[in-house]
Amino acid sequence: CNVVVLISGSGSNLQALIDSQAEDNPARIRAVISNRADAFGLTRAQDAGIPTAVLDHKAFDGRDSFDAALMEVIDEHAPDLVILAGFMRILTPGFVRHYQGRLLNIHPSLLPKYKGLDTHRRALEAGDSEHGCSVHFVTEELDGGPVAIQAALAVEPGENIEQLTQRVHAAEHQIYPLAMRWFAEGRLRLAEQGAMLDDVNL
Ligand code: GRF
């Protein structure tokens, strides 16, 4: 299963995916693409011997031309799966359709709660007793595609935003490699009713 990972920043999720390859994950990350030249995730990829590319969205005159160029770079690697790992760009419907059923994202909330930004602050302000993260297939609705796996954490009394953010981030690093593995093994797919898991033994 050929995987291309898109990033914009630190790439700690990318690192978790890379590390899982050294264990029993059959997925193979063939390239890492960033829209920012200073993304630390590029260094992580290079350290792991994975080819990288930078495509600066500011060099394009709009989302359509950026996404068209991005698709070209991605498709050079013939991916079975494209993984968004902290890729901070909204993708066009054309892009999303092109990768339908093979495009995953991770979002730091228990979807459908808290789509969009600032999820940890919103969960704390709402006094939620539970918070977490979700891996989902990407559809045209922002953070609205079918969920494949979630990790839920109990919010601890008096916990501050840094602590909660850090714990959710650690949970992301657990579930994203799992979703990548399930997809590579043909057990996770996007069906008409939503995300489906076939025959999963943990
Ligand atoms: C994560 O919080 C993820 O949920 C969100 O972007 C962040 C990426 O973090 N989509 P990192 O670059 O993987 O450390």
From TrEMBL:
Protein EC: 2.1.2.2
Residues that, per the record, bind (6R)-10-formyltetrahydrofolate: 63, 88-91, 105
GO biological process terms held by the UniProt record: 'de novo' IMP biosynthetic process
Reaction catalysed by this enzyme: N(1)-(5-phospho-beta-D-ribosyl)glycinamide + (6R)-10-formyltetrahydrofolate = N(2)-formyl-N(1)-(5-phospho-beta-D-ribosyl)glycinamide + (6S)-5,6,7,8-tetrahydrofolate + H(+)
Keyword line: Purine biosynthesis, Transferase
Residue ranges of every copy of the Formyl transferase N-terminal domain listed in the record: 2-179
Binding, N(1)-(5-phospho-beta-D-ribosyl)glycinamide: 11-13
Pathway membership, UniProt: Purine metabolism; IMP biosynthesis via de novo pathway; N(2)-formyl-N(1)-(5-phospho-D-ribosyl)glycinamide from N(1)-(5-phospho-D-ribosyl)glycinamide (10-formyl THF route): step 1/1
GO CC annotations, alphabetized: cytosol
Top-level class of the enzyme under EC nomenclature: transferase
Residues under site feature: Raises pKa of active site His: 143
GO molecular function: phosphoribosylglycinamide formyltransferase activity
Active site: 107 (proton donor)
Record-stated family: Belongs to the GART family.
Function: Catalyzes the transfer of a formyl group from 10-formyltetrahydrofolate to 5-phospho-ribosyl-glycinamide (GAR), producing 5-phospho-ribosyl-N-formylglycinamide (FGAR) and tetrahydrofolate.
Name by which UniProt lists this protein: Phosphoribosylglycinamide formyltransferase
Taxonomic path: Bacteria, Pseudomonadati, Pseudomonadota, Gammaproteobacteria, Pseudomonadales
